[in-house]
Amino acid sequence: QVQLVESGGGLVQAGDSLRLSCAASGRTVRSLAVGWFRQPPGKEREFVARISESGTSTYYADSVKGRFTISRDNAKNTVYLQMISLKPEDTAVYYCATRPSYYIGSWASWGQGTQVTVSS
Predict the structure, then answer these.
(1) Which pLDDT band holds residue 79 (cuts at 50, 70, 90)?
(2) b/e string for 72-110 if b means 16 or more Cβ within 10 A?
């Protein structure tokens, strides 16, 4: 069983940048796809980005494409979400999760989330 811990959130101004980390423990995540999700206040959780096991394939929600970059360091058992040009609508609790396949399957092993607040 893998445990995930998100970190790196905070309060920033519009236009600023943040890098979120998703650190795994319990088992290696090098054989797992990893996704980032977010839940804005009062809204449903939504997909943000995912990365394949090797890191060679990535996919983004349209709302973050060109501003967010997902990457992974399998040696550190960590996945990152670099966010630039942040907007107030990016305010949310950000979560990471894993699944065995990049293309299909249910997401599991959710972390506790990290809060990102973007002020205008």
Answers:
(1) very high
(2) bebeebbbbbebeebeeebbbbbbbbbbeebeeeebebb
